[in-house]
Amino acid sequence: MAETHPPYSSFKKLSSFFNGITAVSGVVLIGLGFYVKFRGAALTRVLGLSHAHLHHVGYLCLVLGCVTVLLSFTGWYGVTKENRGTLLFCSLFMIFILIMEIGVTSVVLGFLPTVQDMGLEHNVVTLRTNYKGFNEPDDYSTDWNSVMEKLKCCGVKNYTDFSGSSFEMMTGHAYPRSCCKSIQTVACDGHNVSTDIIHQEGCLPKLLEITKTQSFNLSGGSLGAAVIQA
């Protein structure tokens, strides 16, 4: 029986771990791509982001996500079968993907703050003027409710964006039910602004935070996999 060397066994486990991280990051990218593709119109209306830019980002996320998942499974196969040719191919391709990801990450992280600075006040004014409420049937209110529930956020900058809004004047509430962590709770009364009751963070900062986190996770996982396999 062939002897198993502890250092090589540790290498295989570490490589599999990084390949797993890379695969998960790829799946997240694919999910983000589908979300942007099918929910891009809602984000466009509520956050004022360019519809064309969103579609480009969505397709890019889908392509990078699929390639990353494929490479991670190929790398896992190469480690399991101890195939150096497969590992070398995966390493070179992973480095190429990593360079692309760094470039895309730099563009995205540089582009989103510009969008935030340019459209922030306009989005707040539009929200205060056009948002009607949680159960209102108009597209603008429906889109906002959907975004706030899915991203777990409230308003553009934060929950105070509803102060002085048409919504507050009509209902007397400081925030809509879609800002609540649990919509069914009695404490979600439109007045209790405790962090235990509502999501206080705004949707635009939350979107930036999610984008940054996933960009760093994806780049880190790919870098780790490429280094371990090299």
Automatic annotation (TrEMBL):
Stored Pfam families: Tetraspanin
Bilayer topology annotation: Multi-pass membrane protein
Predominant location: membrane
Cellular component GO terms, alphabetical: membrane
Gene3D superfamilies with a match to the protein in the record: Tetraspanin (1.10.1450.10)
Chain ranges passing through the membrane: 16-36, 57-79, 85-112
Entry keywords, A to Z: Membrane, Transmembrane, Transmembrane helix
Record flagged with keyword Transmembrane helix: yes
Cell location: Membrane
InterPro entries: Tetraspanin/Peripherin (IPR018499), Tetraspanin_animals (IPR000301), Tetraspanin_EC2_sf (IPR008952)
Entry keyword Electron transport: no
Family listed: Belongs to the tetraspanin (TM4SF) family.
Protein name: Tetraspanin
Source species: Equus caballus (Horse)
